[in-house]
Amino acid sequence: VTFFVFFVSLEVEAIFTYQVKISCKALRFDMIKTLVSPCSVYGFGSQKLKFDRSCKRVKPRAVRMELTITQPDDWHLHLRDSDLLQAVVSHSASTFKRAIVMPNLKPPVTTTAAAITYRESIMKALPSGTSFDPLMTLYLTDKTQPDEIKLARESGVVYAVKLYPAGATTNSQDGVTDLFGKCLPVLEEMVKQNMPLLVHGEVTDPSIDVFDREKIFIDTVLQPLIQRLPQLKVVMEHITTMDAVNFVESCKEGSVGATVTPQHLLLNRNALFQGGLQPHNYCLPVLKREIHREAIVKAVTSGSKKFFLGTDSAPHERSRKESSCGCAGIYSAPVALSLYAKVFDEAGALDKLEAFTSFNGPDFYGLPRNSSKITLKKSPWKVPDVFSFSFGEIVPMFAGETLQWQPSN
Q1: Before 38, cis peptide (omega within 30)?
Q2: 317 lies in which domain range?
Q3: Which residues contact residue 62 at a Cβ distance below 8 angstroms, ignoring those fewer than 6 apart?
């Protein structure tokens, strides 16, 4: 009788193999017990060490250094207007083929005519030769009429309606105060027109803790809305909590989806205060606890079709962020795809990146997937500290830090 104990440990994962061999002329018995696959273990980075059936080492596969995917779309983007629009639009257009453009300008884009005018401004601001396609949205108010939804659908340029609870975020003062009263006829027309409702999912009652506003919105607004209008297509924008993940996963596929930002995948609320107050990490909905960040990462890297890319990239001039009452918004457009790749790479789920960035969004909206491709190369590069323009500076997300993945068309 012989006993062999074999231990392999790499990083935080381990194989414990207990092998008992009993030999005689008439009997040979082998038993192997493992905590993971007996013939594979994850090694350093995304590399996997493999063993054949006799537990002999097999040559590991090469670390992936290049990844070509279908060109992604950004399903939640702020482009602003005037000088800011001119400054930032090229950053999105260089990576994304299409984008759902948010309507919270001053004044807000509340009519189809205003959406068409805004789209023309965006097209004029694009660099020559760019094929970027802005998909426009309307800003829902208590005064919006059902006929406006019909016009929006007929226009061919308006793809959704955005719900801002009044006072929830930047330029939301004209938002909705009576969703189930004044807005109900509009919501019913949206069902008829198959027009998605994009939801900023926070209540605005000042008595409710800012970190609980998403959960309370789900319980008191979103669930009753889905129950009342089950055929309404809803996107819960920039989800931030485990509660939102669980809600979206509980809904029928194709009826409720969610966009996910790079900041809510990579940062928790500690990022607001480490080394002092960090205004460039301040956004709304605000960053949450680590358990919520982990839940969101798990959801998007699981392969679920209900979650898709939406940067919520929101440019503000530096002095407006670094002030006594700093603006909410993180400018991620220049680094977004690199950051999403970072998340999926670290989760060992690069094979699921393309669906999240390029398939789930158009499938939910009923639009064709892009035919163009984009390549991500694993080549370290440093994010600029600032982007300078005639009107001032914009500080990007992860300013001054080194990222590993870099996109190139």
Answers
A1: no
A2: 69-372
A3: none
Structural domain includes residue 268: yes
The pLDDT of residue 36? 35
Asked if residue 10 is part of any domain, the answer here is: no
- Using one digit for the tens of pLDDT, what is the confidence trace for 174-231? 899 999 999 999 999 999 999 999 999 999 999 999 999 999 999 999 999 999 999 9
What's the pLDDT score for residue 333?
A: 98
pLDDT tier, 167 (very low <50, low <70, confident <90, very high otherwise): confident
Task: Report the pLDDT value the prediction gives residue 279, as an integer from 0 to 100.
Answer: 97
Q: What is the DSSP string of 303-356?
A: T-TTEEE---B----HHHHSSTTPPP--B-TTTHHHHHHHHHHHTT-GGGHHII
Mean residue pLDDT of the chain comes to 88
How many CB atoms are located within 10 Å of the residue 296 CB?
23
- Do you know the residue count of the chain? 409
- Residue 60: other Cβ atoms inside 10 A: 12
Does the pLDDT value for residue 161 go beyond 50? yes
Residue with tokens 């009993």: 22
Catalytic residue set: 76, 78, 162, 200, 238, 312
Sheet holding 402-408, edge to edge: 66-70, 373-382, 402-408
> Is residue 391 assigned to a domain?
no
Q: Is residue 321 part of a domain?
A: yes
Domain count, the chain: 1
> Token pair 């205004």 is at which residue?
279
Reading across the β-sheet that carries 133-139, which strands appear in turn? Answer: 74-77, 98-101, 133-139, 158-163, 197-199, 234-236, 256-260, 307-309
Residues 6+ apart with CB under 8 A from 39: 50, 51, 52, 53, 55
**Pick from 162, 150, 180: nearest CA to 118:** 162
Range in 8-12, 134-138, 173-177 the model is least confident about: 8-12
CA distance 65 to 50: 20
Specify the CATH number for the domain of residue 366. Answer: 3.20.20.140
Cβ proximity of 18 and 32 under 8 Å: yes
At 174 the pLDDT is 84
